[in-house]
Amino acid sequence: MSMRTNARNVVExxxxxxxLSLSDLxxxxxxxxxxxxxxxxxxxxxxxxxxxxxxxxTGKRGLKGILKDSGFRQPSDRSHFxxxxxxxxxxxxxxxxxxxxxxxxxxxxxxxQLPFLEYFTTSKAFQNGSPYGNFRFTFSIRELLxxxxxxxxxxxxxVLRVYETVLYRQEILYAIVVHPRNIHCYDDYPRLPxxxxxxxxxxxxxxxxxxxxxSQTYMHRLNVNWKHxxxxxxxxxxxxxxxxxxxxxxxxxxxxxxxxxxxxxFKRLNVCExxxxxxLKPPExxxxxxRAENFLSSLKAREGYDxxxx
Length: 310
Hints:
Order of helices and strands: EEHEEHEEHEHEEEEEEEEHEH
Mean pLDDT: 89
Oligomer: single chain
Strand content: 25-35%
């Protein structure tokens, strides 16, 4: 366990080369306001997602830079990383719900079960909004690995490794690093498990994630009827707890640009609301959803737009 202050002047507790589960973190006896709360209502404590897409969110200025470069480069905060987050779809939530029911009732045929996981997948990991800006690029993991491998890993495929677990005030971040085989600064970090995994793994062109804290605030209780093989939801008082999510960090050397052609960039681009707390760095500022949509519509209407716009 180590401590550091990040570029946003926030203190981080981090564990290099490990993806520590919620129970593992508790065993570390870290002084933490939320981690050891014992009044959290029953909820799905281990939900297995298989996620096929990643998203990268930026502000208006960042969007201009990406379109100008026709791709993504490392930020100017001395980091070697280009960060992406898991983008969990509604279909993937439904599939996770089916797996959870099967694990609860392996010998029971589930009938007429109302959806329930949507009551718990309410943390920022599942929301459309983002604190990082109004403009979201969404790519499949397969496509990103292809572009990265073809540009920076000639003759080889990129390597995925367990990078670290980072604990914040109310957030647990599991970071995965992707790098070329000829970059050896990550050799001491374990490979990301291919199939059988604890917190995170990679299989069948998807990242497997065993989510342990899907909500940021809990006001619903999961009630399991073992006799009838069903679950239902009840409502109680609101309780705050930690939430967990996964990010993928692509190693980028100074001057590297992960190139993607303009048409594909526009096809993968959508707008989103800026969620609280806003983490855009000045002079960036959040736009209303209406203004962001109008701005993007005007860009998409320009086929072969004027370079002077920059």
